[in-house]
Write a structure and sequence with these properties.
Layout (H helix, E strand, L loop, with lengths): L5 E4 L9 H10 L4 E7 L11 H8 L5 E7 L7 H7 L3 E5 L6 H10 L3 E6 L9 H5 L5 E5 L15 H10 L4 E5 L7 H7 L3 E4 L1 H4 L4 H16 L1
Helix pairs in contact: 2-3, 6-7, 7-9
The protein binds ribulose-5-phosphate.
Ribulose-5-phosphate binds next to β2, β8 and α8.
Catalytic activity: D-ribulose 5-phosphate = D-xylulose 5-phosphate
Cofactor: Mn(2+); a divalent metal cation; Fe(2+); Co(2+)
Enzyme class: isomerase
């Protein structure tokens, strides 16, 4: 059976000063997860928030907290994020840390382990840890990480397709520029976890914006 369709709105596009309300709005609108972009101003040229903010948000929601770490030193975040209430720990394969150890540590802490690829990184970079059964989710970035509101890169779809064919049971997440105009390409390629910031938080009809994404993934899986 194909992995379930999941929509994970990116709070990067929300009003950070009202994060709990923004989270409630998308969960009430049908979102499955909340995507939290942790940026350190070093791995990417932007700075957002870390475990203390995740911990504050966790007090206001029971939703699955899908943390995407755009940081140089993800190993330093395992315990703080676990303590904060995070559920998914996704780090970048490009960092200079042992990916297998990070996955094991995330899982031992009770979180799921995800591994992310920048647009310039080939799918083969995650084969070894996926083949070893250490990964719950692969995140294929469809923009350069760091900022919301960028243009979707359709040239990432062969990477998504190759990963889906090789790993039918693993969640495959796409992130960057997803919305009504791009979801079909991603869903057809085999992505089942859809991160969307601008297209959800910028919509006048949040439930509809989420449903469009989810329905496309469900339809593609049939
Ligand atoms: O990881 C990210 C940027 O690094 C964001 O999650 C992503 O860009 C989503 O924003 P949008 O849907 O507006 O493109």
């Amino acid at each position: 059976m194909a992995p379930a369709a999941i929509v994970s709105p990116s709070l990067l596009a929300s009003d950070f000063a009202r994060m709990a309300d923004e989270a409630k709005k998308v969960i009430d609108g049908g979102a499955d997860w909340l995507h939290l972009d942790i940026m350190d101003g070093h791995f990417v040229p932007n700075l957002t928030f870390g475990a203390p903010v995740v911990k504050c948000l966790a007090k206001h929601t029971d939703a699955f907290l899908d943390c995407h770490l755009m940081v140089t030193n993800p190993g330093d975040y395992v315990e703080p994020l676990k303590d904060a209430g995070a559920h998914m720990f996704t780090f970048h394969i490009e960092v200079d840390e042992d990916a297998a150890v990070l996955c094991d540590r995330a899982r031992a802490a009770g979180m799921k382990a995800g591994v992310a690829l920048k647009p310039g990184t080939p799918a083969e970079a995650v084969h070894a840890i996926c083949d070893a059964g250490k990964v719950d989710m692969v995140l294929v970035m469809t923009v350069e990480p760091g900022f919301g509101g960028q243009k979707f890169q359709p040239e990432m779809m062969p990477k998504v397709k190759a990963l889906r064919e090789r790993y039918p049971q693993i969640d495959i997440q796409v992130d960057g520029g997803l919305g009504p105009a791009t979801i079909e390409a991603a869903a057809t390629a085999g992505a089942n976890v859809i991160v969307a910031g601008s297209s959800v938080f910028g919509s006048d009809d949040v439930p509809k914006a989420i449903a469009v994404l989810k329905d496309a993934v469900t339809a593609a899986a049939k």
